[in-house]
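Quick review question:
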């Protein structure tokens, strides 16, 4: 290789490594996924999925998007570079929230009307297994950081069902508030935080014993939950409050309430924790919060009825 191509290739590699993360927003009513450059906070591309895209996850290498599509009862496997749907994997009826294990080898989908969870092997062949859960109308199924547990929120119940992934059995049902929805684990996996919509509260669950702690009162119709990378703060969206509440983990108190768009739902944070992206269902936007200042710094127009955000 001559010197000029070598320099060019090194420059490209450096640029690729320093590129800002990409945020993906599924728009349930538009049948699209908006692709946001988090450096400029602009939509740089729109991926057509059709149907009603809801849950979304991104592979650890950033090359593959996984989207639950409600009308087809399917998991769409999308090539992130081309935006093309490569495979459609059957899920239970009316799939909603999905999550990937930390290593990206397993994907879990909550299927509302099937009242269960489907776990898909993301490797070749896409083997899968399913399990009915006790809680009615599951909305989110989230892996613990070590992949040992799968926590499932029962939207029409007041519990979180705990699945032992290796044994493929429900080992506990943790009582929480009414209509539990979003779930997020602390980075060390010691605590899971669960938003309970009808109580306007977020519950901490001790993972070692699957025991709930005292709830923290947050905004009305609490929904999405994100834990900061250092585990010090929990962010909770308030659907009716049009805001995101900041809970200080150390003393279990709300330290700030940040206004966003209408009906904020699910959220995601950049890996460095500096920005929080919030899907606003009724506004058709994604609000961007600077976590250092606690201020909303942008409202990015996306499609209709954005459901959530995934960032890799």
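Suggested answer, residue by residue:
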């Amino acid at each position: 290789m001559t010197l000029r191509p070598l320099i060019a290739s090194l420059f490209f590699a450096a640029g690729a490594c320093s590129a800002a993360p990409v945020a993906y927003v599924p728009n349930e009513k538009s049948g699209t996924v908006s692709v946001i450059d988090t450096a400029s906070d602009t939509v740089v591309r729109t991926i057509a999925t059709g149907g009603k895209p809801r849950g979304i996850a991104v592979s650890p290498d950033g090359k593959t998007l996984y989207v639950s599509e409600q009308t087809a009862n399917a998991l769409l496997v999308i090539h992130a570079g081309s935006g093309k749907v490569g495979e459609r994997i059957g899920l239970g009826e009316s799939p909603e929230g999905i999550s990937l294990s930390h290593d990206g080898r397993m994907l879990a989908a909550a299927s509302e009307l099937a009242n269960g969870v489907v776990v898909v092997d993301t490797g070749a062949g896409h083997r899968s297994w399913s399990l009915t859960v006790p809680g009615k109308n599951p909305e989110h199924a989230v892996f613990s950081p070590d992949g040992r547990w799968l926590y499932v929120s029962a939207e029409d119940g007041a519990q979180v069902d705990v699945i032992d992934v290796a044994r493929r059995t429900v080992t506990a049902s943790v009582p929480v508030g009414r209509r539990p929805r979003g779930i997020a684990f602390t980075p060390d996996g010691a605590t899971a935080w669960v938003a309970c919509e009808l109580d306007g509260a977020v519950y901490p669950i001790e993972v070692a014993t699957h025991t709930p702690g005292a709830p923290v009162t947050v905004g009305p119709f609490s929904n999405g939950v994100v834990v900061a990378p250092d585990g010090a703060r929990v962010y909770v969206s308030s659907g009716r409050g049009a805001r995101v509440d900041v809970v200080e983990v150390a003393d279990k108190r709300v330290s700030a309430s940040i206004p966003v768009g209408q009906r904020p739902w699910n959220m995601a944070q950049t890996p460095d924790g500096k920005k929080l992206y919030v899907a606003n269902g009724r506004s058709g936007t994604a609000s961007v919060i600077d976590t250092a200042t606690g201020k909303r710094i942008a409202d990015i127009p996306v499609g209709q009825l954005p459901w959530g955000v995934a960032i890799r």
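Why it works: The CA atoms of residues 193 and 204 lie 5 Å apart. The chain has one helix and 29 strands.
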